[in-house]
């Protein structure tokens, strides 16, 4: 799974790197985060028709534009009775994307990139303990070149029908991160990993003209090399949100440290 990640690169730098034409104000004001948690507001990259206002006050769909938007992490299906269900849908397993109703439609028409500087995972350790709590080692997993990665994501719109039609908060935009089976050394840490799309797949994944089956095939493309290092257990507390979270742990608890890159 992917339950915690970091996204601290400046919005304008993301725009330059991902060829983003517009940055929504709600995305621009999101500051750097080293400990993004489920239900937080996060930045996503989407391609949608630009809304253009006509002389009579109505709007029409304009040209397709790539933009950086804000969304709540945890997908809320359009048919959900309340947004609380999103807390259980922070991830979408790649193996069931085409079958599960909550993910099948977004896969076809609402795909996004979730930009990140890296993510966190915890390795369960077979160590003696005085309590029933299983000891774990936290790891920071990030691009080997310290660049930005793009998680494959889906997004959805949910209408709060208790709000008036002219209430700007009547629509909730939410997102989920696609995961797949971990391979190689990463599988020693956890059996799942976020689906990281290589740069060559970004355009097709975002393109509204690309169908669900073709988009699904992009998830098999090889991702950029990753690096791994053990870090402090401080990351387990969501109140900790600072650059120190990604610093190496000088005395890791893991007796067989996973090191990649």
UniProtKB/TrEMBL annotation:
Presence of the UniProt keyword Kinase in the record: no
Keywords: Covalent protein-DNA linkage, DNA damage, DNA-binding, Hydrolase, Lyase, Protease
Region ranges (Disordered): 238-261
First-level EC class: hydrolase
EC number(s) stated in the UniProt entry for this protein: 3.4.-.-
UniProt cross-references to Pfam families, sorted A to Z: SRAP
Assigned protein family: Belongs to the SOS response-associated peptidase family.
UniProt protein name: Abasic site processing protein
Source organism of the structure: Isoptericola halotolerans
Taxon lineage: Bacteria, Bacillati, Actinomycetota, Actinomycetes, Micrococcales
């Amino acid at each position: 799974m992917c339950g915690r990640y970091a996204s601290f690169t400046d919005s304008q730098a993301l725009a330059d790197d991902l060829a983003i034409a517009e940055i929504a104000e709600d995305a621009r004001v999101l500051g750097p985060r080293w400990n993004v948690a489920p239900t937080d507001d996060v930045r996503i990259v989407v391609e949608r028709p630009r809304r253009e206002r006509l002389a009579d006050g109505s709007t029409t769909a304009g040209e397709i534009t790539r933009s950086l938007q804000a969304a709540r992490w945890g997908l809320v299906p359009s048919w959900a009775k309340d947004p609380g269900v999103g807390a259980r849908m922070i991830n979408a397993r790649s193996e069931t994307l085409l079958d599960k109703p909550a993910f099948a439609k977004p896969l076809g028409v609402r795909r996004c990139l979730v930009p990140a500087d890296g993510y966190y995972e915890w390795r369960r350790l077979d160590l003696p303990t005085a309590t029933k709590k299983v000891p774990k080692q936290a790891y920071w997993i990030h691009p080997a070149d310290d660049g930005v990665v793009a998680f494959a994501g889906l997004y959805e719109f949910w209408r709060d029908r208790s709000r008036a039609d002219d209430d700007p908060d009547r629509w909730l935009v939410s997102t989920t991160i696609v995961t797949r089976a971990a391979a190689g050394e990463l599988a020693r840490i956890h059996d799942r990993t976020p689906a990281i799309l290589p740069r060559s797949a970004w355009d097709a994944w975002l393109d509204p003209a690309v169908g669900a089956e073709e988009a699904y095939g992009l998830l098999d493309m090889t991702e950029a090399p990753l690096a791994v290092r053990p870090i402090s257990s401080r990351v387990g507390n969501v109140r900790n949100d600072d650059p120190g979270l990604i610093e190496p742990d000088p005395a890791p608890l893991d007796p067989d440290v996973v090191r990649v890159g």
